[in-house]
Amino acid sequence: MASRFDGLRALYLNGTLTPSPAASHTDTLIEASAHVLREQGVEVDVVRLVDHRVAPGVQPDMTEHGAERDDWPQIWQRVAAADILVLAGPIWLGDNSSQTRLAIERLYAHSGELNDKGQAVFYGKVGGALIGGNEDGLKHCTGVILHALQHLGVTIPPNAEAGWIGEAGPGPSYGDELDDGSRAGFDNDFTQKNITFMAWNLMHMAAILRDVGGIPAEGNLPEEWQQGSRWGFQNPEYR
Amino acid sequence: MASRFDGLRALYLNGTLTPSPAASHTDTLIEASAHVLREQGVEVDVVRLVDHRVAPGVQPDMTEHGAERDDWPQIWQRVAAADILVLAGPIWLGDNSSQTRLAIERLYAHSGELNDKGQAVFYGKVGGALIGGNEDGLKHCTGVILHALQHLGVTIPPNAEAGWIGEAGPGPSYGDELDDGSRAGFDNDFTQKNITFMAWNLMHMAAILRDVGGIPAEGNLPEEWQQGSRWGFQNPEYR
Amino acid sequence: MASRFDGLRALYLNGTLTPSPAASHTDTLIEASAHVLREQGVEVDVVRLVDHRVAPGVQPDMTEHGAERDDWPQIWQRVAAADILVLAGPIWLGDNSSQTRLAIERLYAHSGELNDKGQAVFYGKVGGALIGGNEDGLKHCTGVILHALQHLGVTIPPNAEAGWIGEAGPGPSYGDELDDGSRAGFDNDFTQKNITFMAWNLMHMAAILRDVGGIPAEGNLPEEWQQGSRWGFQNPEYR
Amino acid sequence: MASRFDGLRALYLNGTLTPSPAASHTDTLIEASAHVLREQGVEVDVVRLVDHRVAPGVQPDMTEHGAERDDWPQIWQRVAAADILVLAGPIWLGDNSSQTRLAIERLYAHSGELNDKGQAVFYGKVGGALIGGNEDGLKHCTGVILHALQHLGVTIPPNAEAGWIGEAGPGPSYGDELDDGSRAGFDNDFTQKNITFMAWNLMHMAAILRDVGGIPAEGNLPEEWQQGSRWGFQNPEYR
Predict the structure, then answer these.
(1) Four-CA torsion D57, D58, D64, D66, nearest 10 degrees
(2) What is the ipTM of this complex?
(3) Partner-chain contact D236 C28, CB within 8 Å
(4) pTM value?
(5) For chain B, which terminal residue's Cβ has fewer other Cβ atoms within 10 angstroms, N or C?
């Protein structure tokens, strides 16, 4: 059956500290989210950053700046192809992981690139955040991620964050088997609902932006600004 | 001349600590932003919260919960009427002001209300953040605001933040007259550009959402979820 | 029995949005913490800010700046008398409450005042943060509070944060009666331990600073700095 | 001349993304701070994390958990030897760098280790944060760092943060040569003062803790807690 979401592509960047093939709690969250997307015909791609040699830095290709090796340029091709971009990761000491920060830094490296309309290259993409931890920090971590994404030019639809955290203190992470054989967080209605609403809103907004041809190219063109276009801006009268 | 933005309404909530008629630096930022919107036919409304008696609390009308007086219900009518909602405010010790937090708390009080499609009442609105300070904290403050807005159901377009801050340390705020007669921040190209891009992206996204009839009502309906709709959600296989 | 903590004074500022006499979850956390202090001879004072008319602003007495009424100056006397200063409060949408922000703003108003050694007036005080919510945000909220306190001149001892939050999603707050008659968070070992360690470290550090006469007055005197003292500072060689 | 700070050791962890021998703006900040310490007889050590192969993870030695190589255990010896621990780094998109997060994650890996008193192994250390960027984020980044340090058991003295950021927008970083031959940030009185006050307060507090034999071992011993010691904690009466 044709879906209005056919042909959309989503990329999840997983900022776990755990290399494959070991299980990643973040991956379990991604699976829950990606399942909703795939069922609607969205093509899903997942990159676990720690499995690659992504060089530190804020340039698109760090081998041009002294790095021996840099797998980011290949990952960037997958970012560039995505209509939907989700940053997913764990919480450590209440904040995003070093791998999630690395993802943000490398995305930021492309902030000066333009799309074919002359807007920042992230314009037209739709973004979200998916965070898991044994306790505390979901909103702070997603807030930082969503801020970074909109700063780059990604559109953030309603309820673009989801995840699971347990009660204060040490404890199981999302998907861990509990003593009674159940899985931590799997019965959490709030988590289920947020994953679902986020997934649908990402699809809705990506389909809308595809249908209307992206964000209109007026008032948001860096090169025209630099050449003097002001689109109505003027300094306020001082009072 | 007809503009595709005619009929759109924008509301700026100003979280300054300074009551009228004293000047508010945040108001100067709002003026710069609102000018771009007005020129395109958007109807602009501004509320300086501190001029009102907004009761602390997280209910829509705190007089029903013991408050002597609460001006929020009137302000809420203006929020409800807005297509574009911008939270604006100062920075104190690196964070949002108590009045900005008050605004977020009172908006949050309406998080359980639904629009006529059955979505959270904020769905269909577009939001942004406007922050000024003499130094440091713009991104943190806007990040917290934009997170709150998307959490409530507001859509965040690209580059939905703007403002001005000076170099580290005490100094003038946006619009203050400097020794040479110029105004602090008025010659800052980055500030001007961000105010402009933010204004246009707010208008673009509000017009798009008006044109397409808002966020489609599938996968994001709290009451249907509660009644058992899952829209494809299922817990992941454990691996 | 004499305790080495006899004569120390602690002040808890409660940033709940709920006026007395209604119960405040934050107050329940404060009680747990204050009990440990009182048992060791510390004199405990508690201020629920929302019960007072604290004017918005960043001056010590806002009646001198147009406010009709301002209860802060009286509260400040209680802050000034305290060896231990704890900011306590709820979490709303992942962040500190408007009343907690108000407390920080009004404390900040005194940042230019000096103690009798010529240091910022907060030098010699010891501080902590106590946060409760139904879910998520404890570390972010305490991080912001502790940052503000050290910025003002308060010393932060080890493990100066405590509180309780539940699993992701709506749910009971600290001390709420559960279906089985137990109280939410009361059986949380992590919460109990953190409250205890925080209480003791606040007392230890306050006693140490009392014993040694506070932070020595060298390298931290604003007026001497302004008059040219540099205490060894020099700009780095450029390389 | 004997100084009361003789024999104290300080370690700066530099979270720059730039490997040696290229210049690091963070290093310039570290030099400014370290100069004050060295002049008082403090032995200073600096680690630029990106020059090492520090494996991602939250265990003390990641080679025991599958990593091919991990330089952290050697760096940890230098942390363990330090009385003063400063996390320093750049700002990217308003937040700490991936290398700074890596440092925090690896420090966190040792949170279960105890000192010879039975306290967390970080007890007795004193900490601070040093942040530089071309604009915006100093307080947020230092807040996150100082929160992490106190959480681990480090004491935070007054004014334990310093750094430099420029006006909103792209621009030079600390120490960059400007058109007039001067260095960015070098004439900033606020930056100079904060570096100085922070340096002295780190030394004062480290000397105090050395003199008094560290934080007294009562009310803060994880193993005794686990064995049932409560040091006066009891759940509050419910009201």
Answers:
(1) -30
(2) 0.97
(3) yes
(4) 0.98
(5) N
